[in-house]
Amino acid sequence: MTAETTETTEIIETAATKSEIDQRTERDLAARTAGWRLMVEAVRPQKWWIVVGVASGFIWTLARLAVPQLAARAVDDGIRGDDLHLVLLLTLAMLAVGVVQALTTGLRRYCAFRIALRTETDLRTRLFAHLQRLHFAFHDEAQTGQLMARANSDLQQINTVVILLPLTAASMLTMIGVLIIMMMKSVVLAVLALGLLPLLNRAATRFSSRITPANLALQEELSGLSGVVEESLSGIRILKGFGAERLQVKRLDDAADGVLKQALRAAKLRAGFMPLIDLLPTLSLVAIIWYGGHLVLDGQLEIGDILAYNLYVLMLIWPLRMVGMLVAQSSRASAAAGRIHEILSTDVAVDDPPHPIPLSDGPGNLLFEGVSFGYGHGRLVLDGLNLSIAGGEAVAIVGATGSGKTTVARLVPRFYDANSGRVLLDGVDVRDLRVSELRDAVGIVFEDTFLFSDSIRRNIAFSDPGASIETIERAARLSGIHTFIQSLPQGYETLIGEHGYSLSGGQRQRIAIARAVLHDPRVLILDDATSAVDPSKEHEIRAALAEVMEGRTTLIIAHRPATIALADRVILLDGGRCIASGTHEELLASNERYREILARSDSTESSSLEGSE
Predict the structure, then answer these.
(1) Is 613 helix (H, G, I), strand (E, B) or coil?
(2) Which residue, 215, 248, 218, is CA-closest to 233?
(3) Does domain 361-441+523-613 have CATH number 3.40.50.300?
(4) Which one of 23, 96, 219, 395 is most buried, by most CB atoms within 10 A?
(5) CA quadruple 533, 539, 540, 541: dihedral positive or negative?
(6) Which residues have a Cβ under 8 Å from the Cβ of 224 and sit 6 or more positions away?
(7) Cα–Cα distances in Å, from 7 out to 4, 19, 21, 422?
(8) What residue stretches are annotated with the ABC transporter domain (predicted)?
(9) Beta carbons of 396 and 584 less than 8 angstroms apart
(10) Residue 541 CB: number of other CB atoms within 10 A?
(11) With 0-12 CB in 10 A as exposed, 13-18 as middle and 19+ as buried, what is 99?
(12) Could you tell me if 334 and 363 are in contact, meaning their C-beta atoms sit under 8 angstroms apart?
């Protein structure tokens, strides 16, 4: 390679790197701008508390500015004038002003914290509500730990800056008042005392430009750490089962080191900026004593004026610190708010139609008309599927892994929407129904049973907390779990541990079945509902399923022959299409592909059982 070629390559690479940096900077700026808009929007409902906070801050500022003036008069006119009565009056006035200052300090701080806490709560509620409405495709890709970080640490960053804003505004008023009073006494002395402020402004601007990317990187590292912690706790049984505790601790250490590295980088930047905030008042005092002393000796100023100047300069210490903290925190808060805005601006995708059609009573007929669907930009999982299920009919969907059988079940309650074609419930396209009404009509028992850390009663009545105990017991009887619950010391009020791990797999699954049939849905979906149950106990679940399926449209996603046999009809899927239909016995006798799939399932299950013995 020639030197000229090498130089050209380096120029191209440098240009590409610069372009990437520019694009990243533009994205960061856009995110921060969106973050500020979100914070302003979130704070707006607290406008009356903002007015009260601003008013109390204004009174607090006037009180603070009055104290040095009263002190100066007490020295010059009272003490030097040998007027004890005036000294007494001025000290009483200072005491009264101090009381006003104390009261307004409490009021303005209460307003600031109330506004911040209300804003944080409203944003958390809004974020959580939006996460609940977001489609499954979003949750398929999102990391739980990162979402938790947004709902906690990111909102805490916003809380802090919302507290600082009104407090810093009052401090800025103090700085302006101090500047005006100083100018009225001596322009030269004021310039000497405050002449370093432009330097502070320049330093703050430079600090902000450097701390922003550091804070963005820190927030990303914190999200990653939250993800590792969440996975470690949720998957503790897997970790212990594989003896992988040390590996996970190492992973956690690496994530924590990443947080530490970015936090130290941000701390180093702050450590370089804050000393300037501390140094400025000291330099101002030096200027006041040096030049102000000359003015006193020349008779142009009184000693009380020098005292007032010193007090005013001391007043600047905390406001300058507040400005420094606000500059640093604003960067973190805008980055955090930008991340929250990113979620809130995510399209719900699956939402109510503009003019929903009411779902009338019906037997639960299901119809798939030319349905095609693919996850993201991947291949089509369903390709022109046509399938009709009569009301009250139990249909099993069977196929190899990736054939689309679970996808069929997910399209009925609109966990996803078909790319093309239609899914109809009792003659109505499911996309024309209210989502809540559609899901009330569909009961689902998932393969991975999730129970909440609550009582059995509340778990069964999760979708209808106001359900009567009679309704709950009826659902439990249908699912075959009532007798077991009654045998417990606290019956339906028995508390179960996280995810219900204190119960057996069969018991958890039957509670899930009871939860699904509580509303007496017209369509019941069993998504591999027996796959996680010990085969020796499967007959208990099948008996419960047969009971709840009676006279109800049921879609069974299964691979175990005994569960498939519960269906009136079996649909064999391959390549996203229906390639065969019939009873379990008919397909077993006539379809080679069907026999292969069942044989493969039996082989996999047998291997799993042997490995567990």
Answers:
(1) coil
(2) 248
(3) yes
(4) 219
(5) positive
(6) 145, 146, 255, 258
(7) 5, 18, 21, 59
(8) 366-600
(9) yes
(10) 24
(11) exposed
(12) no
Over residues 82-139, the pLDDT tens digits come to 778 888 888 898 899 889 989 998 998 899 999 998 998 898 888 888 888 887 777 7
- Hunting for tokens 């430079």 — which residue is that? 206
Structure tokens that stand for 380 in this block: 């089509």
Six token digits for residue 448 = 């991975």
Distance between CA atoms of residues 208 and 335, nearest Å: 12
Over residues 246-274, the pLDDT tens digits come to 777 787 788 888 888 888 888 888 777 77
Cβ neighbours, 10 Å, residue 526: 28
Local structure of 310: helix, strand or coil: helix
CB atoms within 10 A of CB 605: 14
Cβ(375)–Cβ(436) under 8 Å?
Answer: no
- 385's enclosing H/E stretch is strand 380-389
The domain limits of the chain are 29-344, 361-441+523-613, 452-520
- Cα separation, 101 vs 82, in Å, equals 29
Q: Which of 128, 118, 130 is nearest to 151 (CA)?
A: 128
Encode 463-485: b = buried (16+ Cβ within 10 Å), e = exposed: eeeebeeebbbbbbebbbbbebb
pLDDT at residue 551 is higher than 70: yes
Share of the chain above pLDDT 90, in %: 11
Do residues 101 and 94 touch, judged by C-beta distance below 8 A? no
CA distances to 193, 317, 412 from 299, in Å: 20, 29, 91
**If you search the block for the tokens 């002003």, which residue do you land on?**
97
Helix axis angle, 84-133 to 155-185, nearest 10°: 150
| Residue type at 303 in one-letter notation | I
The amino acid that residue 556 corresponds to is: I
**Interatomic CA distance for residues 68 and 217, integer angstroms:** 45
Query: Measuring CA to CA, which residue among 270, 284, 264 is closest to residue 326?
Result: 270
**Cβ distance 280 to 203 under 8 Å?**
no
pTM of the entire predicted model = 0.69
How much of the chain, in percent, has pLDDT values that exceed 70? 85
Superfamily of domain 452-520: P-loop containing nucleotide triphosphate hydrolases (3.40.50.300)
Residues 6+ apart with CB under 8 A from 22: none
What pLDDT score was predicted for residue 77?
76
Note whether 368 and 567 are within 8 A (CB).
no
The CA-to-CA distance between both ends of the chain, in Å, stands at 64
Fold match between 361-441+523-613 and 452-520? yes
- State whether residue 461 is helix, strand or coil: coil
Task: Report the chain's mean pLDDT, rounded to a whole number.
Answer: 80
Tokens standing for residue 545: 């399923």
Distance CA 442, CA 517 (A): 9
Closest to 440 measured CA to CA, from 526, 516, 363, 547: 516
H/E stretch holding 367 reads strand 366-374
The string of pLDDT tens digits covering residues 355-406 is 999 988 889 899 999 999 988 777 889 998 999 999 999 999 998 888 888 8
Burial of 345 (0-12, 13-18, 19+ CB in 10 A): exposed
Tokens 């100047």 belong to residue: 309
The strand ranges marked E within 431-557 are 442-445, 523-527, 553-557
